[in-house]
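Predict the assembly for these two chains.
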Amino acid sequence: MLKILNLEAGYGELRVLKGISLHVAPGEVVTVIGANGAGKTTLLKTMAGILKARCGEVEFDKRRIHNEPAERIVARGCCLVPEGRHIFSTLTVKENLLLGSYCRARTFRPWRKGPDHADNEQSIESTLEQVYELFGILKERSGQLAGTLSGGQQQMLAIGRALMSRPRLLMMDEPSLGVAPLVVKEIYKTIVNLKRRGLTILLVEQNARAALAVADRGYVLETGQIVLQGTARQLCDSPEVQRAYLGKEYRSIDE
Amino acid sequence: MNLPQIVEYARSGITVGSIYAIVAIGFNIIYACTGIINFAQGEFLIVGAMTAISLSHVLPLPAAIAGAVLVTALLGGLLEIVFIRPVKNASVLRLIVVTIGLSIVIREAMLHLWGETVRSLPYFTGTAVSTVTILGAGVSLQVFWVLGVSAVIVAALTLFFRFTLTGRAMRACADDRMAARLCGINDRWMVTLSFMLSAGIGALAGCVISPVTQTQYDMGAPLAIKGFTVAIIGGLGNSMGAVAAGLFLGLLEAFVTSQSSAYKEAVSIVVLLLILVFRPSGLFTRSDVSALRTA
């Protein structure tokens, strides 16, 4: 479904991604783990079209998307939940969600043709119901300004907003960042839930333990390069991952 | 001061005040979407009025005004695409300087096209002398047009931003540009749209005040300064605040003028300075919303 070949990207002089290759098959949950500054967020931003790739290829559904603008990539069904949530804090919860389905609403988009894209209000409404079902709190708070939600609720809103575009590939950037442990559990429950419904997920995390628990496969990113890959089981058992990311030999600080 | 005099000053204050408010709303739309203060906003009013005056020789008045609004909106969009969009990695300050440059260019272009002549549109209903008597003072019918059109603009904009998908998308762009793009919103088109919208609104405002204040090629800059003051008093990005602040400044100016006309221009500058020093987020900003903005 998603294939990345030799992707390089960075900011100005700084080369952050130094040739990354990975793939995600339909229905899989794949995680990319790595420390601060490894290039995880840069990787996702480049895939989502926010950053321009210097070289390499991103292929989604056999289409090269690395030169397309962000808004077209979303319309193709590849949606990113950005790090730090980035909800529209001065808009209401419901407005946030409805904007999530912006690419499905009838607007002038000459590059999308065909009857299957003629999404109508009804189908958007039914997606909204599904999201409310997934995150009950969002329905309760639908009229509230999004910025007044708690951190965990904002993270749920960010995920819900992304789901409103009915993505086929959902990319998540550190959904557990800055969220209370109990809420992390709930968010990961949702990820498992979404996986059961057949959604393909690319999950980027610093919280390796949580990510490897739900993933089928994983990649380890270090200073812009993939240093290790394998099934989640293999990675969990790998001594390197245990030492560097699961903190087996040192006393864990945050868990 | 007797009652008719008070009514007279109040009328003039409310009339100019509502125009200040419309100019301020033009500032707000672009500011909210881009963070830019568009200093060519005043010029849009004059371009609109001048175009309408020229068109009114060949078209009936409503068609001429509609045409002028359309032309000015297209001009606004065109200027954004040609001069604002290509500026790469632009800081907001640099873009603001671009808009100052644009205002000068537009002004000089108008001097070439329409000359220095003072022109005006005919009164929309009746003539210059037809008035309605309120509390003993004569009030020109055009004043009601100014107030009515201002009210309609504010109401229509509020509905647009609150209830239409495009309006919400513009607010989303204002709130978080990257997140808006991740939702599939084309942010570049939203910025162009914000320029078109505020140019069109400016043109309409320019047309309705033309019969009252007359129109000359260089009248845009003073209007822009007043509008900017009002936008700051009302809180940048806050349309309802702009209306209240516009009326406040208009009335203040009118009554200060009644005592001594020498201080008329100083009023807005003094108010602007006071606001910037003591309450830079504006008098009418909802504190919860502004807290969310900075967060």
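The mean pLDDT of chain B is 88. The CA atoms of residues 129 and 140 of chain B lie 7 Å apart.
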